[in-house]
Design goal:
Its EC number is 2.3.1.286. Pfam families: SIR2 (PF02146). This is protein acetyllysine N-acetyltransferase. Zn(2+) binds at residues 124, 127, 145, 148. The chain has 247 residues and is of the alpha/beta class. It folds into two domains: 6-30 and 78-116 and 165-247, 3-Layer(aba) Sandwich (Rossmann fold), CATH 3.40.50; 31-74 and 118-158, 2-Layer Sandwich (SIR2/SIRT2 'Small Domain'), CATH 3.30.1600.10. Helices cover 30% and strands 17% of the residues. It contains eight helices and nine strands. It has helices spanning 39-42, 45-48, 58-74, 79-90, 103-106, 168-177, 196-202, 231-246, and strands at residues 16-20, 93-97, 113-114, 117-124, 130-132, 154-158, 183-187, 207-211, 225-228. The strands form two sheets. The chain has a six-stranded parallel beta sheet with strand order 3-2-1-7-8-9, sandwiched between helices. A three-stranded antiparallel beta sheet has the order 5-4-6, covered by helices on one side. The model is unreliable at 1-6 (pLDDT under 50). The structure holds adenosine-5-diphosphoribose and zinc ion. Zinc ion is lined by residues 124, 126-127, 129, 145, 147-148, 150.
Length: 247
């Protein structure tokens, strides 16, 4: 369970809070959701990611997440993941991601808060048991919950639409902990699921946004610095901004 390592005491040195989305893993070959060719183009959210009816679509749900686990297993961290790991050793850094892959951890990041869960987890909704299944296959009606043996009550440990995101409070606490000398960096998210625009306006300190293109969901005025280019290409410029604010 991600907990903020000691609330950001007022006299603590400047901190970096990073909120990332699918765009951070795009250069590792993992599809985003709403860009051209994104996951939601070829799949019906209501069939594969809806908390109200997932038990009726078990084969489609597990098939969709099996494909995503296979894609994650084949992917490698990209320079943007590596940069986040580097920044975490250089400055006190809190990493919150909407991504369910493990590329930040494989780049060397620690204490990553997965706001939408993790692909490698499974959760049984018949007995509430949650475990790390890994990125291997899951066969419906064959594989079962290790605790109660249920086969049709097991769902990937990813937060579905209509499901409460347990880590949401962590995000709110992290935002509430930001002080004027702390930096908020948002990278690779359309802000469709989180109020990113509001976060950019509410953060008391410097704010940086790195996406591919401007969006009316997150107008430029919401951030002090906006970089519209692939995260891997923006690393040097983002790092220079962070050094200016955090060193
Ligand atoms: N570098 C930086 N940004 C990128 C890159 C890249 N290489 N490629 C794409 N982006 C940006 C796009 O400009 C877009 O703003 O990443 C964002 C991807 O947006 P989405 O596909 O909507 O992904 P995300 O914001 O993470 O979705 C949030 O929605 O469906 C749910 O649970 C799912 O966690 C996901 C949530
Ligand atoms: Zn169970």
């Amino acid at each position: 369970m991600f907990t903020m390592k000691g609330e950001w005491a007022n006299d603590a040195p400047p901190q970096l809070m990073i909120l990332s989305g699918a765009g951070l893993s795009a250069e590792s070959g993992i599809r985003t959701f709403r860009d051209a060719g994104g996951l939601w183009e070829g799949h019906d959210i209501d069939t594969v990611c809806n908390f109200d009816n997932w038990r009726d679509n078990l084969e489609l749900v597990h098939g969709f997440y099996q494909a995503r686990r296979e894609a994650a297993a084949k992917a490698d961290p990209n320079p943007a993941h590596d940069a986040v790991a580097r920044w975490q050793t250089r400055w006190p850094t809190h990493i919150l991601t909407q991504n369910v892959d493990d590329l930040l951890e494989r780049a060397g990041c620690t204490d990553v808060c997965h706001l939408h869960g993790r692909l490698q987890d499974m959760r049984c909704y018949d007995c509430d048991y949650e475990w790390e299944h890994g990125l291997g296959p899951w066969t419906v009606d064959q594989d079962a919950c290790p605790d109660c043996g249920s086969t049709r009550g097991v769902k990937p440990g990813v937060v579905f639409f209509g499901e409460m995101a347990p880590e949401y409070r962590t995000l709110q606490r992290a935002m509430d902990s930001l002080r004027p000398r702390d930096v908020l960096l948002v990278v690779g998210t359309s802000g469709q699921v989180l109020p990113v625009a509001r976060m950019g306006l509410e953060a008391p300190g410097p704010t940086i946004l790195n996406n591919l293109e401007p969006s009316d969901v997150i107008p430029d005025r919401c951030f002090d610095h906006t970089l519209y280019r692939p995260a891997g290409e923006a690393v040097a410029e983002v790092e220079a901004l962070l050094a200016r604010y955090l060193d």
